Amino acid sequence: MKRPEVKAFHACCGALLLTAAMAGNAYAQDLSRISITVGFTSGGTYDATARLFSRHLGKHLAGNPQIIVQNMPGSGGIVALNHLYNIAPSDGSALALVDGALVFEALFGNPSVKYDPRQLNWIGSRAKETPTCIVWAERSVATIDQAMEREVVLGATIGTRTYNQPRLFNALLGTKFKIVTGYPGGNELTVAMERGETEGWCGWSWTSVKRRVPTWLSEKKVNILVQGALEKSPDLPNVPLAVDLVTNPIDRQILQLMLSDTRIASPLIAPGGMPKQRVHELRTGFDRMMTDPDFTNDAEKLGIEVDPTPGEKLQTAVNEMFTLPVDVLSRAKELLK
Question: Tell me: the pLDDT tens digits for 200-228?
């Protein structure tokens, strides 16, 4: 005869054990469908990247799941990342592709942020980015020095480097950028620039520029003022790096911090709380996709650069941002108030 306490255990906890076992089996099963939520409107490079992934990632995952893309614009991707962190299932069936700069929104305490970047699972990044400040040649300035002498109207999306970079340049370089917000993504920023609503925008990835507006470059319709990255693009040897224009050592360190997000650009992210095996499967599948000739050929046809960073390195880079000296973080936060 079973003792009373043993009977009680089976009666009250057996269901919990069965539920846990079923959950474990669910994680062990192959996924049939995965969604990638893009934090911007359709037509931009983030959207194009997600749709590129949707055509190739599934064949590098167990079960060859169908990959679908959905757009969830809002606050520069914060809405999408909040959804991923708080609402999306953590079984590997929900991923997001957003601007890596959203790490700073959490780091500096944006009240709209409801996620902790350190608790997310970073799967991998398609490429590092070289953000640029680009203006319409006929209506604007020719050099970054001239942008320190007169006002230049730029479009921006709040919560992204299109908003943060020109503010930093105003504070640290002495530029006179007037920032006009309200544009949900790169497609709208480009149209506004072409129509003359704005003179240009900063934080525009050089890869995206070459892909989306090649005739602007060949016909010399635009001027490239400065590069907002830690290293120059080989294509732009004569365009200065913003960090090279800062003379104050502390300000230079702050700018280097704020431009470090270019190394985690276009990241594919999964929710926290996922089994380690599922995270490993997603990262391994991502890495294999990056070297798949079908994928790289497709990316080349679209003009999308492939220079990947593995998920483990992204995770480390994000964690390191939260260990920087308090005085550096406080100064950077003050500049971006």
Answer: 999 999 988 998 899 999 999 999 999 99
159 and 280 housed in the same domain: no
Domain membership of residue 153 as a residue range: 131-261
Task: Classify the phi-psi angles of 138: left when phi > 0, otherwise alpha if psi is within -120 to 50, otherwise beta.
Answer: alpha
CA dihedral of 154, 204, 229, 324, whole degrees rounded to 10: 80
How many Å apart are CA 89 and CA 305, to the nearest integer?
30
| C-alpha to C-alpha distances, 125 to 34, 36, 142, 288, 308, nearest whole angstrom | 18, 14, 33, 13, 5
What are the start-end ranges of the E strands in 193-275? Answer: 200-205, 222-227, 267-270
From first CA to last CA, the distance across the chain in angstroms is 70
DSSP state of 30: P
pTM greater than 0.85 (yes/no): no
154 inside domain: yes
Residue 145 belongs to domain with CATH number: 3.40.190.10
